[in-house]
């Protein structure tokens, strides 16, 4: 019923965010609210978007001691968001605490995923922080850890999707930012792929921000990208 696109609603102000949200259909995308807009607008804004029928991915990437992360995850579950996340590099005790905190929500729990290696990072960035393996090797290690902790999926680059699908199974959600239509500015992203290739590789959800939000007409930019995707490969009827 829904498209695989999650729009990263990274607008600098709430008015611009509403200007976009009011012009798009919940069948055409889910919405990801990250640190910038959440810090501006807070939980009430999230509730208003959900009232309009949008699934919300609250992308706050929690990374802290297990107790703190578990309590923060409970607050996101109480908000009723569709998806939420932690950093896998917080380790297995932290991820397990987050997962356990959702136990009492049963089927109403948000999808809980873990960020592996940020799509803005390449080998040199990893070396700087003492990680001397490739982004694929490090992301694989963290994705396996996340799966073993019972998480529902990971955030990774679309470049890692084929390998992860084989190793981690069909049901493990692969959520991929770093999506750039051919010929567009990569900005600060490093491990990128086009929407069509990411979908063909097997990404469950394509997270797309600036190619939509910074376009002259963001709602039209979303439609243009949707039209390039293969509707038969998703849950949806969006073309
Ligand atoms: O590894 C990651 C994890 C999260 N993100 C977030 O996705 C969007 C991408 O926005 P673009 O404008 O399409 O680059 C943004 O909100 C990031 O915080 C990511 O890019 N990579």
UniProtKB/TrEMBL annotation:
Keywords: Decarboxylase, Lyase, Pyrimidine biosynthesis
UniProt cross-references to CDD domains, sorted A to Z: OMP_decarboxylase_like
Active site: 59 (for ompdecase activity), 61 (for ompdecase activity), 61 (proton donor), 64 (for ompdecase activity)
Superkingdom, taxonomy of origin: Bacteria
Binding site for substrate: 10, 32, 59-68, 119, 180, 189, 209-210
Pfam families given in the database record: OMPdecase
Residue ranges of domain Orotidine 5'-phosphate decarboxylase in the record: 4-225
SUPFAM superfamilies referenced in this protein's UniProt entry, alphabetically: Ribulose-phoshate binding barrel
Reaction(s) catalysed by this chain's protein: orotidine 5'-phosphate + H(+) = UMP + CO2
Gene3D superfamilies found in the cross-reference section: Aldolase class I
Example of a GO cellular component annotation carried by this entry: cytosol
GO terms classed as biological process: 'de novo' pyrimidine nucleobase biosynthetic process; 'de novo' UMP biosynthetic process
GO molecular function annotation: orotidine-5'-phosphate decarboxylase activity
Pathway: Pyrimidine metabolism; UMP biosynthesis via de novo pathway; UMP from orotate: step 2/2
EC number: 4.1.1.23
Record function comment: Catalyzes the decarboxylation of orotidine 5'-monophosphate (OMP) to uridine 5'-monophosphate (UMP).
Similarity field: Belongs to the OMP decarboxylase family. Type 1 subfamily.
Quaternary data: Homodimer.
Protein name (database record): Orotidine 5'-phosphate decarboxylase
